[in-house]
């Protein structure tokens, strides 16, 4: 029973303080005047009566009512019901306040004094929350006052304050009449009220507040607030209604049940207390919307606007949401409750009786949803409770780690925060006791969990359950369903608007107090009402079983692994150590599984119980290794109890070291974070205490059962025993009670001593003299422990394990002993204080702990001393690697273990196979490479040799790492080394390698990776002493050449100054067409032409004698050789012919003064003079002006390259000559010269001179000028607004034919006749504001290109995807996801797309200038690919070398800078621009394997050695630097008989003569073919260079190192053959080199031929000569063979699926193993990329050698309509079905002889009836349509009628059936 109201207060306006800055209210009267003893009067009520401030108003407002909540110092809430009305201010008070009011209301005019009204509040203060009762009581008092009823207010107040009601109980039959009558109250004014007291006061009373909250904010917003409140965030409600603020806050608290909010809770906050919002602690507060502006600066507060229905979460606040699928299920059920019509909204016949519940019922249904939610969140929580004291009061702790582990929720952020919160701590303390009163939540947890689990996934069943729970909640809150009519007198309507109203009178305090005293005396005389509390045993409910169900299949699949674990342990204890050694690696891999770890602990426990704990050395080592492997995958929380199960075992298993000296396993398993976690030790302590407390009260026959599980077999759980004991406690005598308390305390005390010993075992290191990691890891600060074997990763994570008290320690105790003592003391203080241990016992513990630690240290000293005498474990012998000529060791091998990384191929992981890693060996640092060589630790493959190496110059990242012990007990430091050759080494240094040696290794590695100058790289220092190389700078070579080069550079300007520079009027040159024969004869004349104006000057007169040798070398460079081959310009003394040439070779840059990064000889228009070139070059970045680099031999269109324009030159570039200018300037003249330069290029084209008139686009429609065609993805969207609208429209007009699928080129002609003569491919960002050529001779094509940073970042992600450092278990970190995120293939797609665009422009007689970025990265990629695609010469080995030398080396790609080859370029990082180009060539090679003379291995070889720095070819950034360094030109005789090759090309030539490794046997090119590859990402393949590895030999690109290894096996193979032994061999992925173990057929035949020649004593012929003879022989035989010869295809390559041409290589059975090569003339292709003028025949032409006429074998023919590709119309074609050739061909008409297309019936998957589509022929029967599906595409056909259609379908189907 409790008072309904504690205080009645009258609060009014304080006129005395009106003159101050702020108005205030004052308490006019309060009753009773004295505080109740059990409930003091709360302070500050006057602030809460008017939260927005006390103000006088000019008009009377209607009365208001709301309930505010005040919380006192004891955290008890007081509900203040405020009823406010307004009274007129008297004349005297008005006059006193007139001056101030006039000032306040000056904006509103002068207000008469009689118009002011002051607020007055009637306040009820109660500890009970009965809002409606308070509203009725205060309304009655106001009615009596305003309507002048004949009732004394003192009587009403006295009756109210003396009203006593029950707190809970509800409508129960056992209640007596007195208690039933106490629920009906009357205040003495003819009123009557029945108070609905809840049946169970533990359930909150919500009324309609929860339903209103959801209607105001919506489901998702309330869920955000719900999660925010549970995770202790700050929540602020805003509303203009005070009562809505109270209801919203009440609603939030209601849905938090069974948790109770324990932080600041103020539903209505007064404006004067807004500073509370800046509190650092969580809160739930409501504020009037009037103060919205003052809440905008709150950066960590979640604001819920009730009036606007919004919830605002600041950016810095992260709200953890419910875990899935609970979140989705909760939202679904809430939507069904809030909107029951939703699930029937789409039904054609929805039920008519579907209606939303009443607001009160809906409120309870929503609360039932959250009750159902908490039941699922806390399922099985009682099984994780530890009861550590039963008497005198229960002490219970919650095992959080076990709860999270059993539910597999360890990583869930929301649940972790909830379990760590204060609300859950209160939940455990309140609901943890096993014997107490229960409520609805307890019943739900105990009885309904099975039902909830069965209802999962059935919303209708869940909704039914929710409604049942809601009914319980409603009955609890409304126990009287049929209540008698309330009788409450209300004021007459409009009474508050009366002009003359009496002021609320001053009440008679004596009369009120008299009634209170009278009621108090009568209550004292009455007998007290004692309601017995119903207590019972709280059932625990079912344990957590979701984890077993979820992983059931995984557990079933691991049976084999568990069997391996059991067998290995059995072998160890049976001393079958050889068998155990074989199984041990598999066991260590199996222990990654949690089930296997649990199996290990169970098996070891069984052997420990059999007194088999004393082991010999090898047994002890195996057991310790398995324990370490088990613990390394356990988190510091030990959520699965693995460490808890091992804890007693590590103090059991041991080995004898000597007389009386025993080493236990705990001394070898200390380096794990779980031992440093205070929470782990607390949970273990509480678990053991619970078991011992249970043993005190259990029957004697069960006392020996000490199983760790809560539910004992055949016995009661600890909580059940505690419930019985709590029930019996009141019946025990005091002596017995005292005895039980002492026994429990003694149990806790003994366990504390036991755990002090255990902790010292696992925290004190074996060698306590070493304290190497204590200070570095900060263990002294975190009050943990250090030992000498803790790794950095463990030490870094230990700080997370301890509470905030850990920092309060002095810094003096730096030794291990003091640190361990302090850690144990903290543990003992915490657990003993919580367990109720007396201070005397606690002091005893603190006294004993240092002695325990010291005693254990003395024991460890003896163990450590004896362990040193053990014979060392024999380690494998270090294997020395093979070195190249000139390669020397910098450091001797350091013993390391090569650990596995994210690639599981070598670890026997998912892909299976044997475990090659980890491997034990040594790391060698040479002047060229970093090499690991060793043997696998797995004894099953221990005889294999593992080699992993990469060039030092390719090292991109080196970092320190740490490893947990899994192979050996202790490891030293670790390094992770990543190479841009897609290699990764994770090495763990052996304990014998000191830290100084590791640092020395890193120092040498860094010096070799980043030398001071390029001369310090291996290509220059090869052969030098390694010691000299590391310690001193290498001496410069070729001093004479360098001096000569510097002198040449110094005299460059003087040389240029002596030339005659004259200006002549510009006249366009003429161009005469010459035949190919003329080109051949003209190329023989080689000399130098300087300028057209200096016709009398010769080489000797132009260049001084000191420069002639250099110039003659320049002429020999690749650029000049290629210019001569292409017929670009001349170097001739006789200039009569050169004037007729459109281009000339200029020597303006021979001294590299115009452009340092360009070659010495450049192709420029004949009419452009050198001084003009010098001026034009200044407009381009780095002076890289446009020069010609290639010319199409058929169309004579030229390809130019340059850098992008300078920013200052953009405005004047392509400037219209007709634009008005202020006057001549240098900018204008430069712009005109640029235009003249472009005009000279255009006039050099034959299409310009042949054109009869200028072609324009005026005749094209706007639709034809659309830019949404093939190149829309790289073009500007709808053209940039700054461009002339006509720019690029000719390019857009080409896009009318739709593209093929996969980004391939169009089948029809790509270009039309209307075109520009010159297209300029430029960067979109650089070409803004440029203008078009007014005569439409050139056109700008702005494209968006990627920058170098994108390439760099993409490459980093690609390396991490292909060579991950660790195995990732995240679903979004799969290999293909990482590959996609790298965007590497996207970059290749863009480069190929631009290149194909340029190829098609050049093939259509338009010249192209590529002017992108700096001109040495993307520009080089594009122009190189264009030439490769357009010119078959560059697809030969000689041509590709020339292409790389010309475009990449001579034109100045910055190899040194992009490769970060020196210390100066280290910061720029590695950027693989050249690798990207090689990858593009690889993609083209895959699609056109017959067009390349070189193989894929050739590309990989270049990709490896362009970063290896073994050769000088790819060093330095330009020819100028190479000349300065003296490495540009070598002596003629230097290349002969050289052992160390300086050029990669010389090395390739040497290898190519020995072996066909670089040759492509499928090479069968077509003359003049232009390749147009598919560029879509779906057509691109990941290069196996990025993922392929051979651990048997390392990279195969240093041929000398691996070539000799396969000589001896050949001999052994021959011996095996002689003895008729099997030659079968297992080929391991990632270990064997498949190309050598399984060579292709042709290579094998060549090898056998060479072997036979050796055996016969013949001179071995070179493979190339043999190959050429075979080809020549086969050409002859092919012509003579009969038509009916049988052929069988010879599979040559595994990448045939990517071929875009049909291979023409066959093996003729009648000739044996000889090779029959069809000549390229007889090989046709069906690729759409053919661009020859005469057209290419399809694959069917291969049959022409059998049949002479296409007209034969026409099984069925006729007209069919065929639907074209995308956006193409239906067209009639003449189709021919050929059953002999198994083809369906079509022609333009019946008389047409040229086949337009072929459908191979072998590729047909199905033929079905079709339906008409858009654009289909009209007036044709629907049955006349049919569809043909092939493996490549989908064809739509239409026959003239249904009969013909069926005939075609049957005929094609019969062909398919015959096949």
Overview of this structure, please?
- With 1859 residues, the chain is of the alpha+beta class.
- 37% of the residues lie in helices and 13% in strands.
- The protein contains 61 helices and 45 strands.
- A 7-stranded antiparallel beta sheet has the order 25-24-23-22-28-27-26. Strands 42-41-40-39-45-44-43 form a 7-stranded antiparallel beta sheet, with helices on one face.
- The longest helix is centred in the middle third of the chain and has 30 residues.
- The protein is globular, with a radius of gyration of 46 Å.
- The termini are far apart.
Write down how many β-strands occur, each being a DSSP E stretch of 2 or more residues: 45
Shape: globular
Distance between the termini: 96 Å
Largest sheet: 7 strands, antiparallel
Helix content: 25-40%
What is the count of helical runs? 61
Q: Determine Rg (CA atoms, Å).
A: 46 Å
Q: Give the strand order of the largest sheet, numbering strands 1, 2, ... along the chain.
A: 25-24-23-22-28-27-26
What is the percentage of strand-forming residues?
Answer: 5-15%
Secondary-structure blueprint:
Elements: E1 2-3, E2 7-13, E3 25-31, H1 45-49, E4 64-71, E5 77-88, H2 91-104, E6 117-126, H3 131-146, H4 153-161, E7 164-165, H5 177-181, E8 184-185, E9 193-194, H6 209-217, H7 219-230, E10 234-239, H8 242-255, E11 264-266, E12 283-288, E13 301-305, E14 310-312, H9 326-338, H10 359-377, E15 385-389, E16 395-398, H11 400-406, H12 413-420, H13 422-431, E17 435-436, H14 440-447, H15 449-455, H16 459-477, H17 509-525, E18 536-537, H18 546-550, H19 552-557, H20 559-573, H21 577-590, H22 594-609, E19 614-615, H23 617-632, H24 642-650, E20 654-658, E21 661-664, H25 678-697, H26 718-728, H27 734-763, H28 774-777, H29 792-797, H30 816-835, H31 839-868, E22 889-899, E23 919-926, E24 929-936, E25 946-951, E26 955-961, E27 974-979, E28 983-989, H32 995-1009, H33 1018-1021, H34 1026-1031, H35 1039-1050, H36 1052-1057, H37 1076-1082, H38 1099-1102, H39 1105-1115, H40 1118-1126, H41 1135-1138, E29 1143-1146, E30 1162-1165, H42 1170-1177, E31 1187-1191, E32 1198-1202, H43 1226-1243, H44 1246-1250, H45 1289-1293, E33 1318-1323, E34 1338-1343, H46 1348-1362, ...
Helix pairs in contact: 3-4, 4-17, 6-7, 6-8, 6-10, 9-10, 10-16, 20-21, 20-22, 21-23, 22-24, 25-26, 25-27, 27-30, 27-31, 30-31, 46-47, 48-49, 49-50, 49-52, 52-53
């Amino acid at each position: 029973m409790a008072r309904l109201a504690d205080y009645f207060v009258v609060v009014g306006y304080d006129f005395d303080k009106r003159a101050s800055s702020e108005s205030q209210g004052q308490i006019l009267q309060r009753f009773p005047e004295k505080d109740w003893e059990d409930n003091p009067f709360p302070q500050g009520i006057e602030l809460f009566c008017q939260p927005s401030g006390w103000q006088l108003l000019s008009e009377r407002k209607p009365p208001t009512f709301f309930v505010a909540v005040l919380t006192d110092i004891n955290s008890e809430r007081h509900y203040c019901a405020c009823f406010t009305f307004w009274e007129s201010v008297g004349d005297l008070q008005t006059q006193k306040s007139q001056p101030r009011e006039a000032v306040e209301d000056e904006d509103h005019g002068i207000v008469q004094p009689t118009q002011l009204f002051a607020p007055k509040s009637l306040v009820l203060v109660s500890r009970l929350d009965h809002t409606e009762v308070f509203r009725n009581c205060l309304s009655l008092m106001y009615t009596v006052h305003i309507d002048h009823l004949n009732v004394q207010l003192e009587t009403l107040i006295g009756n109210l304050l003396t009203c006593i009601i029950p707190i809970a109980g509800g409508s129960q039959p056992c209640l007596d009449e007195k208690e039933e009558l106490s629920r009906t109250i009357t205040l003495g004014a003819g009123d009557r009220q029945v108070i609905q007291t809840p049946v169970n006061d533990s359930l909150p009373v919500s009324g309609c507040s929860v339903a209103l909250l959801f209607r105001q904010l919506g489901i998702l917003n309330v869920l955000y607030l719900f999660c925010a409140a549970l995770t202790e965030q700050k929540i602020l409600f805003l509303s203009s209604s005070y009562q809505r603020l109270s209801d919203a806050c009440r609603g939030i608290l209601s849905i938090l049940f069974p948790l109770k909010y324990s932080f600041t809770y103020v539903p209505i906050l007064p404006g004067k207390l807004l500073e509370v919002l800046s509190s650092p602690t969580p809160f739930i507060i409501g504020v009037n919307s009037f103060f919205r502006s003052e809440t905008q600066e709150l950066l960590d507060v979640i604001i819920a606007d009730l009036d606007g229905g919004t919830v605002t979460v600041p950016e810095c606040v992260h709200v953890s949401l419910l875990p899935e699928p609970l979140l989705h299920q909760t939202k679904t059920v809430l939507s069904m409750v809030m909107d029951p019509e939703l699930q029937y909204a789409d039904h054609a016949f929805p039920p008519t009786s579907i209606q939303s519940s009443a607001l009160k019922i809906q409120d309870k249904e929503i609360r039932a949803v959250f009750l159902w939610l908490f039941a699922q969140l806390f399922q099985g929580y009682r099984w994780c409770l530890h009861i550590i004291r039963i008497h005198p009061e229960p002490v219970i702790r919650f095992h959080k780690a076990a709860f999270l582990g059993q539910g597999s929720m360890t990583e869930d952020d929301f649940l972790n925060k909830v379990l760590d919160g204060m609300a859950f701590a209160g939940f455990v303390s309140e609901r943890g006791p096993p014997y107490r009163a229960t409520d609805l939540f307890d019943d739900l947890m105990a009885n309904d969990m099975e039902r909830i689990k069965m209802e999962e996934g059935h919303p209708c069943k869940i909704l039914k359950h929710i409604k049942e729970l809601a009914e319980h909640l409603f009955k609890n809150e409304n126990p009287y369903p049929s209540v008698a009519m309330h009788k409450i007198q209300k004021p007459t309507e409009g009474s508050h608007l009366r002009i003359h109203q009496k002021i609320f009178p001053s009440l008679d305090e004596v009369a009120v107090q008299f009634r209170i005293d009278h009621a108090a005396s009568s209550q004292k005389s009455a007998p007290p009402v004692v309601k017995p509390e119903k207590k019972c045993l709280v059932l625990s409910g079912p344990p957590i079983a979701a984890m077993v169900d979820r992983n059931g299949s995984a557990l079933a699949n691991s049976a084999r692994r568990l069997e391996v674990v059991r067998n290995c342990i059995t072998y160890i204890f049976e001393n079958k150590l050889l068998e155990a050694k074989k199984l041990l690696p598999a066991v260590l891999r199996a222990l990654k599984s949690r089930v296997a770890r649990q199996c290990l602990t169970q098996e070891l426990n069984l052997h420990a119980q059999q007194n088999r704990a004393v082991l010999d050395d090898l047994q002890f080592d195996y057991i310790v290794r398995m324990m370490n492997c088990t613990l390394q995958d356990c988190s510091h929380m030990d959520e699965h109890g693995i460490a808890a199960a091992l804890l007693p075992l590590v103090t059991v298993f041991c080995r004898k070291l000597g007389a009386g000296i025993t080493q236990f396993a705990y001394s070898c398993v200390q380096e794990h974070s779980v031992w440093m976690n205070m929470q782990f030790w607390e949970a273990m302590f509480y678990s053991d205490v619970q078991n011992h407390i249970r043993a005190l009260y259990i029957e004697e026959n069960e006392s020996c059962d000490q199983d760790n599980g809560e539910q004992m077999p055949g016995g009661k759980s600890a909580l059940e025993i505690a419930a019985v004991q709590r029930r019996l406690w009141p019946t025990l005598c005091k002596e017995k009670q005292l005895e039980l308390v002492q026994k429990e305390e003694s149990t806790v005390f003994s366990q504390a001593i036991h755990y002090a010993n255990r902790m010292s075992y696992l925290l004190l290191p074996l060698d306590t003299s070493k304290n190497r990691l204590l200070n570095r890891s900060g263990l002294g600060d975190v009050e943990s422990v250090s030992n000498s074997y803790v790794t950095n990763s463990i030490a870094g994570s230990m700080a997370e394990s301890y509470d905030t008290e850990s920092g309060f320690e002095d810094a003096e105790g730096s030794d291990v002993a003091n640190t361990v003592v302090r850690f144990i003391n903290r543990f003992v203080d915490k657990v003993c204080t919580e367990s109720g241990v007396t201070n005397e016992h606690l002091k005893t513990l603190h006294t004993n702990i240092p002695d325990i630690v010291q005693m254990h240290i003395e024991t460890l000293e003896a163990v450590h001393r004896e362990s040193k005498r053990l014979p060392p474990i024999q380690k494998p012998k270090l294997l020395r690697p093979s070195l190249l000529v000139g390669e020397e060791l910098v450091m001797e091998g350091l013993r390391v273990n090569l650990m596995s990384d994210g690639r599981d191929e070598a670890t026997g992981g998912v892909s299976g196979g044997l475990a090659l890693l980890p491997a034990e060996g040594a790391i060698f640092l040479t002047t060229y490479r970093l090499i690991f060589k060793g043997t696998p630790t797995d004894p099953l493959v221990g005889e294999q040799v593992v080699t992993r190496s990469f060039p030092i110059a390719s090292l991109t990242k080196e970092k320190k790492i740490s490893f947990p012990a899994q192979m050996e007990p202790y490891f030293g430091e670790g390094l992770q080394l990543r190479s841009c050759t897609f290699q990764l080494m994770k090495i763990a240094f052996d304990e014998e390698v000191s830290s100084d040696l590791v640092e020395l290794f890193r120092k040498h590695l860094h010096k070799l990776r980043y030398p001071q100058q390029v001369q310090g790289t291996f290509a220059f220092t090869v052969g030098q002493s390694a010691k000299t190389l590391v310690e001193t700078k290498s001496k410069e070579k070729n001093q004479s050449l360098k001096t000569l080069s510097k002198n040449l550079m110094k005299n460059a300007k003087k040389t240029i100054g002596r030339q005659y520079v004259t200006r002549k009027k510009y006249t366009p040159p003429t161009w005469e067409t010459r035949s190919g024969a003329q080109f051949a004869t003209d190329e023989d004349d080689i000399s130098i032409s300087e300028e057209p104006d200096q016709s009398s000057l010769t080489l000797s007169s132009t260049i001084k004698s000191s420069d002639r040798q250099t110039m003659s070398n320049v002429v020999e460079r690749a650029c000049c050789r290629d210019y001569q081959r292409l017929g670009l310009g001349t170097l001739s003394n006789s200039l009569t012919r050169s004037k007729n040439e459109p281009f000339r070779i200029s020597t303006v840059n021979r001294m590299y003064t115009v452009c340092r990064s360009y070659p010495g000889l450049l192709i420029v228009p004949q009419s452009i003079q050198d001084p003009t070139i010098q001026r034009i070059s200044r407009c381009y970045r780095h002076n890289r002006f446009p020069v010609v680099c290639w010319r199409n031999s058929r169309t004579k269109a030229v390809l130019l390259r340059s850098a992008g324009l300078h920013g200052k030159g953009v405005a004047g570039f392509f400037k219209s000559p007709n634009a008005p200018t202020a006057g001549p300037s240098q900018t204008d003249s430069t712009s005109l010269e640029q235009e003249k330069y472009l005009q000279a290029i255009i006039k050099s084209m034959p299409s310009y001179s042949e054109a009869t008139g200028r072609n324009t686009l005026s005749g094209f429609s706007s639709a034809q000028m659309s830019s949404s065609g093939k190149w829309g993805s790289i073009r500007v969207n709808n053209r940039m607004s700054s461009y002339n609208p006509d720019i690029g429209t000719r390019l857009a007009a080409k896009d009318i034919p739709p593209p093929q699928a996969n980004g391939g080129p169009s089948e029809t002609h790509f270009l039309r006749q209307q075109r520009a003569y010159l297209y300029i491919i430029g960067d979109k960002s650089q070409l803004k504001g440029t203008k078009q050529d007014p005569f439409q001779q050139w056109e700008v094509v702005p494209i968006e290109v990627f920058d170098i940073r994108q390439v760099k970042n993409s490459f980093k992600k690609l390396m991490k995807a292909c060579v991950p450092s660790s195995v990732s278990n995240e679903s979004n970190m799969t290999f293909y996801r990482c590959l996609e995120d790298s965007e590497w293939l996207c970059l290749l797609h863009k480069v190929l797309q631009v290149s194909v665009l340029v190829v098609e422009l050049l093939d259509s007689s338009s010249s192209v200038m590529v002017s992108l970025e700096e001109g040495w990265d993307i520009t080089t990629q594009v122009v190189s690919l264009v030439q490769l695609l357009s010119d078959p010469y560059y697809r030969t080995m000689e041509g590709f070398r020339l292409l790389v030398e010309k475009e990449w080396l001579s034109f100045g790609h910055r190899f040194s800078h992009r490769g970060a080859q020196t210390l100066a370029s280290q910061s720029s990082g590695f950027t693989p621009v050249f690798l990207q180009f090689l990858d593009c060539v690889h993609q083209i090679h895959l699609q056109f394997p017959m067009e390349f003379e070189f193989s894929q291995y050739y590309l990989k070889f270049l990709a490896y050695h362009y970063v290896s720095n073994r050769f000088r070819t790819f060093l330095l950034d330009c020819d100028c630097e190479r000349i300065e360094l003296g490495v540009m030109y070598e002596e003629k005789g230097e290349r002969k008989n050289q052992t160390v090759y300086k050029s990669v090309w010389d090395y390739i030539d040497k290898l190519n003569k020995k072996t066909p490794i670089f040759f492509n046997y499928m090479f069968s090119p077509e003359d003049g073919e232009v390749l147009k590859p598919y560029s879509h990402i779906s057509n691109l393949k990941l290069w196996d260079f990025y993922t392929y590895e051979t651990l048997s030999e390392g990279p195969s690109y240093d041929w000398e190192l691996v070539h000799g290894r396969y000589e001896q096996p050949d001999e052994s193979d021959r011996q095996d053959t002689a003895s008729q032994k099997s030659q079968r061999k297992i080929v391991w992925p990632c270990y064997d080199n498949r190309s050598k173990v399984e060579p292709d057929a042709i290579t094998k035949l060549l090898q056998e031929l060479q072997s036979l020649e050796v055996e016969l004593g013949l001179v071995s012929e070179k493979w190339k000569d043999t190959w050429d003879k075979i080809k020549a022989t086969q050409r002859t035989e092919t012509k003579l063979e009969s038509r009916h010869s049988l052929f069988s295809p010879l599979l040559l390559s595994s990448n045939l699926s990517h071929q875009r041409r049909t291979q023409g290589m066959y093996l003729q059975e009648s000739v044996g193993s000889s090779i029959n090569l069809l000549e390229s003339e007889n090989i046709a292709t069906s690729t759409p990329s053919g661009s020859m003028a005469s057209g290419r025949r399809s694959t069917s032409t291969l049959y022409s050698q059998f049949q002479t006429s296409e007209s034969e074998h026409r099984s069925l023919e006729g007209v069919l309509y065929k639907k074209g590709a995308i956006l193409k119309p239906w067209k009639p074609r003449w189709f021919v079905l050929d059953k002999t050739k198994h083809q369906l061909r079509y022609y333009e008409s019946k008389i047409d002889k040229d086949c337009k297309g072929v459908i191979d019936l072998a590729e047909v998957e199905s033929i079905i009836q079709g339906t008409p589509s858009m654009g289909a022929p009209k007036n044709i029967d629907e049955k006349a349509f049919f569809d043909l599906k092939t493996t490549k595409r989908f064809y739509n056909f239409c026959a003239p009628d249904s009969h013909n259609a069926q005939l075609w379908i049957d005929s094609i189907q019969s062909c398919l059936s015959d096949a």
